[in-house]
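Let us work through a complete example step by step.
Step 1: write down the sequence.
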Amino acid sequence: QVQLVESGGGLAQPGGSLRLSCAASGNIYHILRMGWYRQTPGNQRELVAVFTTSGSTNYADSVRGRFTISRGNAENTVYLQMNSLKPEDTGVYYCNVLVGISYWGKGTLVTVSA
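Step 2: predict the structure and record it as tokens.
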């Protein structure tokens, strides 16, 4: 079993910033992929930013240049620095880790509004 604990969501104004954190614990001996997805109102869950097996990063076109994914000193922790936030970034952000089986966090709400 793998547990994911997310934090850092909240309310931001357009143009503002937020930082999300995710820490994984449990059976995480070989992480294949770890990162962030989101579900915005009326849409399906979509990839935001992830680290792949090779250590490279993938970003959604809609966030590239504004969001940055990074790792903590331990590979089981990832962060998402979100800058220049837009109202359309509003949604629930989920941490995901793939270790053969895909695990999801409970999600953290991000609201971008004036």
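Step 3: interpret the result. The chain has a mean pLDDT of 94.
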